[in-house]
Amino acid sequence: MDDKNISQAVISRLPRYLRYLGELKDSNIERISSQELSELMNVTASQIRQDFNNFGGFGQQGYGYKVNYLYDEIAKILGLNKTHHLIIVGAGNLGQALANYMNFERRGFHFTGIFDSNEKLYGKKIRDMYVQPMEELEHFVKENDIDIAVLTIPKGAAVKIAEQLVSYGVKAYWNFAHIDLKVPKDIVVENVHLSDSLMRLTYTITRNESEKEN
Amino acid sequence: MDDKNISQAVISRLPRYLRYLGELKDSNIERISSQELSELMNVTASQIRQDFNNFGGFGQQGYGYKVNYLYDEIAKILGLNKTHHLIIVGAGNLGQALANYMNFERRGFHFTGIFDSNEKLYGKKIRDMYVQPMEELEHFVKENDIDIAVLTIPKGAAVKIAEQLVSYGVKAYWNFAHIDLKVPKDIVVENVHLSDSLMRLTYTITRNESEKEN
DNA sequence: TAGATTGTTAATCGATTAACAATC
DNA sequence: TAGATTGTTAATCGATTAACAATC
What we know:
The structure is a homodimer of 214-residue chains. With 214 residues, chain A is of the alpha/beta class. Chain A has helices at residues 8-26, 34-41, 45-53, 67-77, 93-100, 102-106, 137-144, 155-168, 194-213; strands at 31-32, 59-60, 64-66, 84-89, 109-116, 125-126, 129-130, 132-133, 148-151, 172-175, 188-191. The relative contact order of chain A is 0.09. The structure holds a DNA duplex (24 and 24 nucleotides).
């Protein structure tokens, strides 16, 4: 598993492989060839083999891939063999939605704290956490060995809070705020820009409609 | 604005351009060169010019780009000059979060209905809508000229409901369920796979940590 | 052993970057 | 007009696909 320089394109495909392999596992299918998987997933068999071989050989010539083994290896590559401790900053609808999504917990993502600047929310119980004021962030983060901060706050606040959290030692951010965070380069940010996604949808809608006219 | 075969890579960058141009507008900046924009956005000036020229010339030699004009043109390309009527299927935390996010409304996305299969939620007021039972979908969709269905329901339900909605004539789906919907090819699906995103984050965290060890 | 399918190299395709002529 | 910067062509780089030898 020596990841020299794996391209973003490959990495982006890994979770999708994992999802399909999970479904195969659930169906008690033991082996699969790149050909079969390619038909299922609508990609080329060549790409599948290339992708996997970025991380070493997971298959067996003449046989294919063992579903369980491949699943576990990809999970490992994605870091899902470790547990991660998260805090949610912003206890609005979106923060609560993420907190309550049980599938994350099953994958080893432990939500350990939730914070908001709105004092009306202080003490509100969300799943098994109580909303805490932002002033508690520093103490909490340092005490609880937090890996990931989930930012579900408006963009202005996100910039400010991210800067603070970086100084408290939080290295990874799942950012839902509609802005590009400026952080030192050993810090990881994964953006979920929902409005960008919605605009891609309307782009395609618009293009489809104008095609019909022609 | 003749979009022959614009690559996905280009389209994916458009919303980000729009965001930066919006900020420039807000700062009352009237003109910008591809060079200046490239520094701001951390991409090459060449890419910016290539991207824009996919849709025709928006700039002026020797001068640069007029921020307002460029902003409007990109908004148009993305289909933001039209209003879109959406329904939300799934009135859980995530559905509610999206319904309440005001910025969508400002962009011309009108949430006109919200549905759930849980009868305890029927009639619950979310923003200015009342949660309706799934049985109302067909009637509502046909009456209200719905462009986009937002699917914030579990994957099993999503597959079933999407199939129904397709038959009712809904052409575009913003899918938050953790599954790839199988739909006819004139139907548009934009996926938001949150767990994929979170896994990309843990991949990078893991890689960063193991790099440090070496 | 023969058949199947991987792992891997080579060929192709597409996207990004560089360069520069056109022109405001 | 001279300077600046686009629009666009050409060069480079990287990712995907095809092909096939290795091997289970």
